[in-house]
TrEMBL record:
The keyword GTP-binding does not apply. The lineage of its organism: Bacteria, Bacillati, Actinomycetota, Actinomycetes, Actinomycetales. It comes from Actinomyces massiliensis F0489. This is Transporter, major facilitator family protein. Pfam families: MFS_1. The chain crosses the membrane at residues 12-30, 42-63, 69-92, 104-122, 134-153, 180-201, 213-230, 242-263, 269-287, 308-332, 338-359.
Length: 377
């Protein structure tokens, strides 16, 4: 287990180096309308990959090829990594900065400490039998202290002329703050929802790994189709695409929760298909619209920093979402049932999605039009 965790840390570290370069390259190498189109394709492929990964993982575990079981899930990354490396070398244009920024090692360590301060109590506390007050104390003291230290440290780094991990000047832009809040909250609840869904369906509802994976397929299809149409929708509705996406998500979540209420613990994967499809539709609309809104506030010479910040928020939110909503799920499941635990997580997801229908149009600065979007706020 220790070796697996260490290998995953290395894998995650290199993934963090790769992901920001995608948005940076799109932003630096393209002009409108190609830029918005490619950001939508990026969101489509990302959502499709996440959902197909769940489906493929279920197929691999079910097939048990060569007796490797779940281990093959990790081995399959090797050929995919080779293909990606060759593709980057062949087709991705060079966008290297003339004066590259230095790496903010101190900010990275402080941010990592702050996130670990959240993840460790949430992930380990229940298993270790910590009382609730110990969780709250650990979260408040450890994580809050690291975030406060990070805030002061990043301000000093930026004042000195170096490039911070999380630039305070970026966070001073209201559109940036609101966009990151939408993106972060969305990925937080989405990560927790996927965790709770897979566990509830397999452990509580007796779906096989294959059936659980198949139930993700409609979501992948919905996100792919809507993200491919997102450029046209964004052009027509502008920032209100976030509201449309939130409404689709909320409707989908309710449609998934209903058969759980009616049929638990005998829900079938086709019972949740329509709801999962609508969740995917919502993801495919709000994610590229939010990406575009955030990136439009960043100067071209700082696009690398901005892309890194987006990736940092996105990936951290996914991790915290799994830990935080996983704790909610396990807590409710322990006292009631896994169906009830899933409904608890779904209710939180529903509340966040509904908030986009109310607040989505306020993401951009109310004083004017967001660059590249068609609606005045």
């Amino acid at each position: 287990m220790e070796m697996l965790i260490a290998a995953r840390v290395v894998q995650g570290a290199f993934a963090v180096l790769l992901l920001p370069q995608v948005m940076s390259t799109i932003q630096a190498a393209l002009k409108e309308p190609a830029k918005t189109r490619l950001l939508s394709y990026y969101a489509a492929i990302g959502g499709l990959s996440a959902a197909v990964g769940q489906l493929l993982g279920g197929v691999i575990v079910w097939a048990d090829l060569g007796g490797l079981g779940w281990r093959l899930i990790f081995l399959i990354n090797l050929p995919l990594g080779v293909v990606a490396a060759l593709g980057i070398r062949a087709w991705v244009p060079e966008t290297r900065a003339d004066d590259p920024d230095s790496t903010d090692i101190g900010g990275t360590l402080l941010f990592g400490a702050a996130i670990l301060g959240l993840l460790i109590p949430l992930s380990v506390g229940r298993q270790a039998g910590w009382p609730a007050w110990a969780w709250a104390w650990a979260l408040c003291v450890g994580s809050a202290a690291a975030f406060v230290a990070l805030r002061f440290y990043e301000s000093r780094i930026e004042i000195s002329g170096r490039a911070p991990l999380i630039p305070p000047s970026f966070l001073a832009i209201s559109t940036m703050r609101r966009g990151l809040l939408v993106l972060g909250s969305g990925f937080l609840v989405f990560g927790g929802y996927l965790f709770a869904f897979a566990l509830a369906m397999q452990e509580g509802n007796s779906m096989s790994a294959l059936e659980s994976g198949m139930s993700m397929a409609p979501m992948a299809l919905g996100q792919f189709l809507s993200a491919m149409r997102a450029p046209q929708i964004i052009k027509r509705y502008g920032i209100r695409s976030i509201q449309i996406g939130g409404l689709a998500q909320a409707t989908g979540i309710a449609a998934v929760m209903l058969p759980v209420i009616l049929f638990w613990p005998y829900s079938e994967f086709y019972h949740v298909a329509a709801g999962m499809f609508l969740i995917g539709i919502g993801n495919g609309l709000y994610v590229p619209s939010t990406y575009r809104t955030i990136l439009s506030t960043i100067p071209d010479h700082k696009i690398g920093l901005g892309s890194g910040l987006i990736t940092t928020v996105q990936q951290s939110a996914l991790a915290v979402g799994v830990a935080a909503l996983g704790a909610v799920f396990m807590g409710i499941s322990a006292s009631a049932s896994m169906g009830a635990g899933f409904l608890g997580v779904g209710t939180i997801f529903l509340a966040v999605a509904l908030s986009y229908t109310v607040l989505g149009a306020r993401v951009a600065d109310r004083r004017g039009r967001t660059e590249g979007l068609g609606a005045r706020i």
